[in-house]
User: Fold these one by one.
Assistant:
Number 1:
Amino acid sequence: MMNKQIRAGSVALLLTAGLLLPGAAGGQTPARKQDAPLTKEQGDAILNELKAIHQLLEKGARPESTAPAAQAAEPAVAAKLKLEGGYSLGAKDAPVTMVEYTDYQCPFCRQFHQATFAEIRKKYIDTGKVRFVSRDLPLDFHNNAFKAAEAARCAGEQNQYWRMRDVLVANATKLAPDDILGYAQDIYLDMTAFRACASSGRFKQAIEKDAAEAGRLNISGTPSFVIGKTTAEGVDGTVVVGAQPLAVFEARFKELESPSKVEVARPSPSH
């Protein structure tokens, strides 16, 4: 079952992500890479996000549950994960692991990938300093997010997971079924196999497992991250919430710097 805290926690995410429209949070303008203005499409997406959350709150979500997450000086939340299966970028023995919980229909996830992720990949993932792991957290008020998550995994069966993921994130406002089929054609997937996979529901449990894992960590909005030391089983670190600027992630990476690679567990020698 999808995490029921998602709806209420998403309000706090709007605040912690720092991406509200000018005037929506004390008249402050959100910091964006090179101070680039929001496009009309991005502005509309954020307004739609606010409307959806407002409607859910009117149906019974408790606003008071969001107050602690919205505080400026929130203590770090420890998180330890076993990372079995799924998709990752970078060296498995990188000293730092960064796990993203994402929703393909989330405008803040798109903001993170457009403004920050490319630089993280160039400076840290591609250089062996950070392993990046993708996890799914489709929010229940995003009608197309779950199917988009299934589509990315179906593309993965044809070794195109990351390419499809990039396309879906970049087109967060256009993820209707026909749109997704069009993206699959654009990246030259075997459409017969892709359609069969997308309609099979075989990744439903795996996606729900990711969402349940996020729930156990009290992660209720996207994007959210677990960043920490790489361990033999996964990662041991803390939760970072929202589409934070590059400096926030770099500060966390610096805290976790280690001169040596992580020792990956090996089987005991036979006697």
Number 2:
Amino acid sequence: MNGYFITGTDTNVGKTYVSTSLARRAVTHGHKVFAFKPIETGCARDANGQYVGADQELLAAAAGNWQQGKLRGLYRFQLPAAPLVAASAEAVNIDLDFIARTTKEAVLQHAATLTLVEGAGGWRVPITSDGDMSSLARLLGLPVILVARAALGTINHTLLAIEAILRDGLSIAAVVLSRRPEDDLAESNHEQIVRRWPGRILMLEADASQLDSLL
């Protein structure tokens, strides 16, 4: 299975922005992209009373809008909280093996050449009573893309997340700093992270071609 597991240093750091940008670039390069966010919290109901994952809808559209049914998300919860907390509020148990199996079956059935699985929240966010986002990443066996803010505070958060991912035995394909116009410290933050970690670090602003090295 060729692809990436996209995680973040925190919530709202730009994971979906990076994931959709990468999906669109991959499509233009001829990939059949499976872009999947299997767990999403903070969901609203549609006209039929079903929860809709806003992030998953953006991912599916970026991948060409071919995904249907369970491939547009397996677990959707109303409460905007960690998956374990949101699932417990609705008396639901999340099955990590089911997520991994569904992902791998979808890749084979639809001949996807690039798989992007976006996590919910950060690396240590709990999903089950004894599993967190790292547990799902290990089951999928995909290299990790770590998305971080480019703003103040990102040096510490990024380096700690890198340490955790590597300690858990997974490889990091890249750190992507998601830069907003107001991020005045972006360049110096980038320099300081480069000084401490020798891996690939990308700065994503408006030009998504910065991600082409991942394809």
Number 3:
Amino acid sequence: MGFLFGLLAWAADTVNVTGKWVGEAPGRGGQAHAVTFNLKADGENLTGTVSGPRGDMEISDGKIDGDTISFSQTMEYSGNQFKLLYAGKVSGDQIEFTRTREGVQGHSQTFTVKRAR
């Protein structure tokens, strides 16, 4: 009986992020651009893609912890690679993201995406 209650408590604490999420993310020079996240949850693991002006890109290091998700995206610009780090708070049918560039302090961007219907 205790196992069943534990399982129900775990299920209540886990959010369903599997699916398509759309919104606008800040871009270079302050210009917003359309962004789509196709996410797949598997327990505490998160996989998927981010689609934007540069096409579809795989996410890495995806994790789910209660209503918080996180992952990274490797980008290339002018022959240099860098990582964007995403941390998101899921609330109903929206995710509020904070995006930072790995190794760069004090420069983060926030934006919200909504579940596509």
